[in-house]
Each structure stands twice: as C-alpha cells, then as structure tokens.
Target: Prepilin-type N-terminal cleavage/methylation domain-containing protein
Amino acid sequence: MSERQAQTGFTLVELLAGLAIAAILVLPLADLLRTGADSARITRAALDLNENARLALGRIARTAADTPEAKAVTDVAPASWLAPVTYTLTGTDLVERKAGISSVIASNVAAFELSAPEVVDGRPLLAIALTLSAEGTTVTRTRTVRVGPRTPDGEQP
Model:
C-alpha cells in the first residue's frame, strides 16, 4: 500500500499570483528611481555649466584687469577691447586667442556678450554675459570688471 506524501512548495498559480503582486508594488518604485536619476543628471549638468561659466568669466575678468591700456570703448570695436587677447564664439565654443594660440575656455555656449555701460576716470566698466546650455539646462552668468590695472594712488598708469 502506498501512502501519499504531503507535498510542500507552491503551485504554479500561487507563484504567478505572487509575481503579479510584486510587480504591482515594484513598478511605482522603479518609476520613482528613474525620476530621481533624471533629476540628479539635470542637477549635475546645471552644476557643471555653472562651474564652466564661472571659470570662463574669471579668466576674462583677469584678462580685462591686466589689460595694460584701457582704450576708449567708443573708439574701437568690442572684439578689440581686451587686445591683444580676443574672444570669439565658434559654434558652441568660446575661444580665447592670445599670442597666436587658441584655447577653448567654455563649451556649450549659447550666447556671449561684452558691453561697456560706462567709463569712469578713463577706465571702462566691462560687462561680460555668458549663457551656457546643455541637456535641457540653461545657465546665464554675468560679471563686471574695470578694464586696465590700477596704480597704488588709484589712477590708471
């Protein structure tokens, strides 16, 4: 006489039901994780753009402060205000040319503008505006600096 042994484990229907319930519970979590990863990517892109803009503006501001001769900005074109250094927008790269050497100082540049809103004591105030854009994020930063070095008595050399 054979005795029927008690079976342990789950049936196929029970396993499928368990998987369906788990999928219903995990699906919103996966969407939440994807949204969080997208948010982190956009935030990282904005931080990178801010850092790139800050570095480029700092470099241009140092060049302006070290320009030996502050020209009357009404007499010359903006591109030559910081001569012998020039800045041009080539595609999406901001290129600095100095002594025949070209260097990309910022990428993903959407707009770049130099303006001189005023001149005080023969030293023009240079306004620099830089807009960078990448991965759906746009960052605009501005900086103002007086062109030309200062002497100890506050007058331009």
About this structure: The mean pLDDT is 84. DSSP finds one helix and six strands in the chain. The chain has one domain: 12-146.
